[in-house]
Queue: 3 jobs
Job 1
Amino acid sequence: MAGKLYHNLIGGEWMASKSGQTLQNINPADRSDIVGIFPASNAEDVALAVAAAKKAFATWRLVPAPKRAEILYKTGQLLAERKEQFAREMTREMGKVLAETRGDVQEAIDEAYYVAGEGRRLFGVTVPSELANKFAMSVRMPVGVIGMIAPWNFPMAIPSWKLFPALVAGNTCVIKPAEDTPLSTYNLVQTLIDAGLPPGVVNIVSGYGPEAGAPLVEHPDVRAISFTGSSAVGSHVAQRAAANFKPVSLEMGGKNAMIVMDDANLELALEGALWGAFGTTGQRCTATSRILLHESIAATFTQRLVARAEALSVGNGLDDGIEVGPQVNEQQIETSTRYCEIAVAEGAKLLTGGKRLIDGPYAKGTFFAPTVFGSVTPAMRIAREEVFGPVVSLIEFSTFEEAIEIANSIDYGLSTALYTKDINRAFTAIRDLEAGITYINAPTIGAEVHLPFGGVKQTGNGHREGLGALDFYTTWKSVYIDSSNTLQRAQIDNAE
Ligand code: NAD
């Protein structure tokens, strides 16, 4: 099926890329289905978009924050009306099952309502001055033009986590969606426009990372970069931005551990493991990719997990009853395949899966069998490196302390989970697990928009989305108002 032609959005106008190049948005469940043709933009397009955002900033920053917030609230209402259509289009471009793409749109709706409330807060701080007849306060100011670079696995939720707080704070934006899933960003931004967003406040430049993402990072008029993606690209982005001291918010990879203790509710842990490991076909930054099993329950748990993994129905996410959709593209299939080979070569035991599905209904898509590895040791690459596919490793341990040590023994620090009925162990894990998120008796996935989202170590550089995002999208201004009619010198005139 031939895809519809889309253009960049620059200053409120839809326009083709100056490069004259395009990219295809392909349905991963059926690669003969072209979802759309999108611009493969270059530095010239980025420069136009940044100029439009810079122009729009002059007026958008002066719109009262509660008014900006009203547009976001209206956006949430319109997204709710369009939820089913947008979810279907998202499944077609990205592959995850309909229940999950409905959840992805719902996350953008939740974010819209949450951030809309900030329009009447955006709290600053008022403190007493050390001098008489002097008033002291600090206020949040917008940063300016923000460049945003998004991954493909949450095609609407992640752009909403970036755009909405940036907008309520008075910034203008240029967003480069992931090349595999631009349509959901288009749907999101079109909804903002329909809700009343003025031209130029959000601009879309579609394209590949090096050609369209890198110029955004380097453009001198882009005041900050919000990036979500792999740690390898994030490191590159941060280094390029550092050249002109540009703040960068980085949300990157994970290798998330679920610990199952001997006293855990095993049925609950099993459900959590299946959802954590194979939800979104394992393509979540928070996916459960290591399951640490207490030795006394390891054999039972493993047997049941393998049986349940084999019973999962893999297929087109738009079809009823499908639990696991395709991987997003050929490259992800290659990565999963390569890591399965590495795991076997290092001595891990393939318990199920481990291969691409190619027969019958799978022939036209990029499907990979839900995969479980046993006999994994913490030193193996399959236990340390992000696969970003439906591949989970089982690691046995003897003591709780050992489990915490294994969980922490990697370079990433995004999400962790502990299944236990022991409240003391739960609190110890909350304290000792090196991660931005810890779940107790729930899997490693399932973040809510109004809590801080992000990780430590090679997962992030200290910023947070959700609660905390406004700290990135605003800059503090301290204000002193002297009503004494005399020169008052701080630290001098009031010193003993
Ligand atoms: P990726 O790093 O390949 O790409 C992310 C984005 O960066 C894309 O838009 C891409 O075009 C762009 N890009 C690539 N090269 C660039 C360059 N040189 N300069 C500027 N931009 C460039 O990641 P992906 O495959 O799209 O997404 C998967 C990764 O994202 C996984 O590692 C996953 O863990 C991570 N992720 C993290 C979070 C989080 O919040 N921590 C959420 C979702 C995904």
Job 2
Amino acid sequence: MKLLIKTFGCQMNFADSDEMGRHMKERGFQPTENEEAADAILVNTCTVRDLAEHKAASFIGRLKEWKMAHPQGLVIVTGCAAERSKDEFKKRFPYIDLIVGAKDIEQFPKELERILSTQEESLPLPELTPTTPNAVVQYVTIMRGCNYNCSYCIVPAVRGREIYLPIEKILAEVADRVGQGAKEIWLLGQTVNSYKPSHAPKPHYDFADLLSDVCAVPGTQRIRFISPHPYYLTDKLIDSMSSNPKVCEHIHLPVQSGSDDMLRKMKRNYTRDLYMRGLERLRRAIPNIAVSTDIIVGFPGETNADFQQTLTLVQEANFDSAYCFQYSPRPGTASAEMKEEVPEMIKEARVNELLALTDSQGTGKAAKLIGTVQEILVEDDKGDGVFRGKTRGAWRARLKSENLKLGDLVQARITGTHSRELHAELI
Ligand code: 5AD
Ligand code: SF4
């Protein structure tokens, strides 16, 4: 039996999809990318912005035809939009067989059993097969949910309060993934560096300690984490990053805005100055660290002067890359009630201006890498002699070679760049 997984949204969702895929594999479903060949389709949805939910909903809408052609096929819908719009989805898409919201992900195996046992007559009960994940890059969730209350964000509503996975469980999971061939491990959490387990081997055990412990797991090679919150960028964490050579020289540190007024209205719990000082401390400790960020334009009440503050922050911060979003009001969030909406045209003009700046910054950063030697992890092999992977600074890179294989960690010289991808040559 074959399972197709379609994931929308963030790394957290991709990690959840992996986890659900593993449960389904244990029930005999092998992965496929071909809709026609699939016996089950799992759609893991996102609702962070209206467009994200819309994309997931139109994908589910298209499955009506698939279900008609595959009446015994399973349609499973999970994730954040499933949490927020469960009843609406059930009504709009009556052919959904199983719907599990993001808060209930722990219940997925049980729900799956339930649905498979009711399907037993039409669907042969699968053999138990061992899982054989072989991805070179693997995600390990260390916490779920979010205790923040950023006024624009729907995540706390759909994923709930923070729950920390126990240290031993995380370390065992990392060891397991390494045993399966993982070369790069990403530790995941909505605000990953607020990790604070209830049972710890010493007082004040926090994310910085966990990071060091993960590095000490035998066989780990590269470690990353996403997404840290600027408020918890402690000296202890920076020390842990700089003193563990396995931690890649890259951080994704969402700033959202350069205006203190907007940051306050967003309830981000830091000022522009605090963010910039954090960046300075990081760069002092890890001079070649690559920094990426998230930025929202057009938050309610954002004036042109506020937006200029974002532009100057971007200029000062000199990011390697930035994800720039137009503000999207989410039902039930505090900012959805705020007046002073910024007109669509202005949002669009601002995001374009911002993208022009962040793109040119990125291009400049990439150009500086030409001629340098970088470590590249080979993550993708299309079989045409061209391999793709990432540098430690998270730059995508391509390499031509006869004798590389997935999972190789190689030293390569950067020879050029093409639309945010580095071209590299083995040395
Ligand atoms: N509108 C626009 N962007 C948003 N993000 C989160 N919520 C919204 C929203 N309502 C962005 C933030 C966050 C990223 C994952 O998505 O920049 O860091
Ligand atoms: Fe991830 Fe947030 Fe989207 Fe949920 S709503 S998938 S947590 S980005």
Job 3
Amino acid sequence: MLPRTLAPQAPFPKTRLRRLRRTSWLRRLAAETRLDVDDLIQPVFIHEGRGRREPVAAMPGVDRLTVDLLVPYAERCLEAGIPALALFPLVPAERKSEGAEEAYNPDNLICRAMRALKRQLPELGLIGDVALDPYTTHGHDGLMREGVVLNDETLVVLQRQAVCLAEAGCDVVAPSDMMDGRVAAVREALDRAGFDQVVILAYAAKYASSFYGPFREAVGSKDALGGADKSTYQMAPANVEEALREVALDIAEGADIVMVKPGLPYLDVVRAVKEQFGFPTFVYQVSGEYAMIQAAGERGWLDAVAAMEECLLAFKRAGADAVLTYAALAVAERRRGRR
Ligand code: PBG
């Protein structure tokens, strides 16, 4: 964090700020912020079948994996030092419905993936989204009636989904739906079911953002949404005071960690949240942020991994404790190679 008052400095030429930039060892010693592999969470898209790896067109370098391929991939992440994965399912169209019943089917794709990973790599952290968009025919995060996304009715389904994830071995449930009151509802349901150690990572300040486009393609909710936006429940990009109110409520409702999303366009929000609450604060470098950097890198317009690391460091500088990023494994492996 910035000091409140700066100590008086001798003027130039006595003070020369370039002195501490002269060599690599000086720059390393003087670094204020560090990006560590311990701070990175790798999101992964999964789909049905066996032995199938399918590139996500809008996210160069990201593939959807079947559960059998997910396990060795997760092992690679673990070996690279990444603490946790966040799993996102591509749900077959015939399993989607108005009521999103598949969200709490104990044999759904995400639960099967969680069980396989917990069995084979018990020391790897697992994060599961709590939201209905992969499971609804209309692609919204909640239940819908006459064009309105229903709040309180959705909470009941989110509770069932969260308990279902916990039963499958999910360590951290991450409500990303932006319904009012969901954190309290999910905490209550988890505790009632005996999951008082399951962590809630609340997507507390989640904005209605254009930067989710590639993700919606990856999980197949883009066509379902058919151009509809989520601005009746996700936050307006203009607001930061409202973000603080969202975060305050989620903390009061029992969130263990709060998250700001997207990342780079909302660095001021990350800083404001960390300064205001001094609470574990994560940030999500979302699909569109990743895609922009990768696309420019593919054209040779910039060094994609270096640009990625610069953005991740910016999140740390702004006050984030950890980052969800599609580049987690690439960054972690590049760091290994450097040592
Ligand atoms: C679903 C969800 C979204 C993301 C994470 N969980 C998309 C959305 O709200 O439409 C976005 C992640 C990304 O863009 O990388 N509730």
